[in-house]
Sequence to fold (322 residues):
Amino acid sequence: MSTSAHTAAAEGATALTSPQSDGRTSQGHRVRRRSVRSRNRWVGLAFVALPLVIYGFVVLVPLAQSVQYSFFNWDGVSAATWVGFQNYVTFVTDPVLRSTLGHVLVLICFFALLPIALGLFSAALLTRAKQPGMAVYRWIFFLPQVMTTVVVALVFKRIYAPDGPLNTVLRAVGLDALTRTWLADFTWALPALGLVGTWVTFGFCMVLFISGTSSIAPELYEAARIDGAGAVREFFAVTLPGLRGQIAIALTLTITAALRTFDLVWVTTHGGPGTSTLTPAVALYKAAFQNPQVGLAAAIGVTMAALCLVIALIITRVSERD
Fold:
């Protein structure tokens, strides 16, 4: 009887103490997990600390200074005068500066919409009918991406010259009436520069879309063909939805490139003739270094940076919708 009593007492003690022991053990595991996560967090912060400091000095501090300068009337030398939002008001009310926004809209059509449409069309053709030599075709059209914009501008400045290859070809085929000084023409200077942007960005869009098309499941195309879809319907039902992410990337990069256009315009026309090819970036440069109006230049830069950010956020939000 005493042995049974001792056994029952031991089992009772174990039953009473076991939940507490398990609780202490699980609590200890949680404490250790929290300490490991905290240590890993500090290790991660230590790795990114130096890049964050460099990024802050290179990007964030100059950005904050630009925002500060935009509220002052300052020539870069004498004492600055507080003007509040007057520089921003000048940017949107001055006829010359306001016209730069209209020029940018034209360039967006040439830098973004036209290359993306041509890139989608080329990608659909190249991926549907594989022909020998397609790699060379892609390389030729991607070549502008590895060339600096200054080199491209110098090449097309020669092409568009009064005695350049373009006018020479037009005269050779009997179209003398179409010849003109392209970069000195108030009507054609901006579209001529826009076509240069189309040539530069088309290859990038095409290669990006070809890469995206290769990641679309072949079963989707097979299902579309079984349902009787032709080439056009197959493109709109399968290819286009499958390239939504790539289209968003292309739109973001090409639109921001159009908004930031400077070197192409500066090397070819300096914003002329008159102000027919003036862009916000060229206006910023002239305001900062030629006039000078540092506060106005800072206001232009801050406005365009905010516009680029808003456009990128809108495109990202729209592309992520189901």
